[in-house]
Alkyl hydroperoxide reductase subunit F
Amino acid sequence: AYDMLIVGGGPAGAAAAVYAARKGIRVGVAAERFGGQTNDTMAIENYISVLETDGPKFAAALEQQVRHYEVDIMNLQRATKVVPASVAGGLLTVEMENGGALRARSVILSTGARWRNVNVPGEQEYKNKGVAYCPHCDGPLFKGKRTAVIGGGNSGIEAAIDLAGIVEHVTVIEFADQLKADAVLVNKLNSLPNVTVHTNAQTMEITGDGSVVNGIRFKDRTTGVEQHVALAGVFVQIGLVPNTEFLKETIELSKFGEIIVDAKGHTNVPGVLAAGDCTTVPYKQIVIAAGEGAKAALSAFDYLIRTPAA
Ligand code: FAD
């Protein structure tokens, strides 16, 4: 059995593993895909102390640092269930898709999240070639260019306001008949000179020239009339889905499916902590996930030294 088992090998899980291993305890990391979302990222320019890197390089560096320590890395392993200990201080069980089960005195959940796709032609083809999901990350790449935001909820309107300060013009496309964002955000958006809002608008296609995005085609749902707008970037902002479906029965989740954690990363189950994009901690970013992972490992270690093993 492990002293600490980390489920998920993105920035949060990797940071937790490094912090845990340095305590000299038995540590395992089970991850469906080591590196997590950073594998899918082009340029990373906001990880402090690293001026610029790319996703695959960053993911490889995460793994290299974890491998520097005595950590069991179980890559390509998907967890399907967490079973709490039957007695205080007892072993927790993490059931795996391959039929196996891993046992540990403490578990850190760092399974991350995934952006909801709009599933129109062009989205997959031009991912990272004009199709983006994170305005904090990729907004500056479109400085002085025209962009669109798909989604008129809080994240979409926050993204549009953020982008309007950087890019030349923002087209907001919302499927429903009105923007769902908070009134204060909508008012702020309406005060900006370089934003156009289309409600009742269905995105039909993200168009490109074969190498990068060159526009977006959408349909007015009341008239059926289609329109094509020329632009360089499309931010898809229709939701971030935490990878927590498998936890529903045991771990307390928010209405958005995020694992509810306290300031130290504890969940509702003793010995189970969580960190990164899968939690209620706001602002889903690499530097934040890494910090939260380190914090969860320190909290778990604190739990281990204070809880007599059953
Ligand atoms: P993730 O990176 O999502 O890692 C989750 C891990 O858990 C993975 O190893 C996954 O395989 C594993 N996992 C999931 N479910 C299971 C399961 N059931 N069993 C076992 N393992 C499981 N942030 C920035 O700061 N700067 C950027 O420039 C930036 N650009 C981005 C660009 C793109 C295209 C995307 C998608 C995201 C970007 N982000 C960026 C966000 C950043 O990648 C995330 O905030 C960060 O990766 C979150 O780290 P995490 O460890 O919490 O989760």
Notes: The longest helix spans residues 286-306.
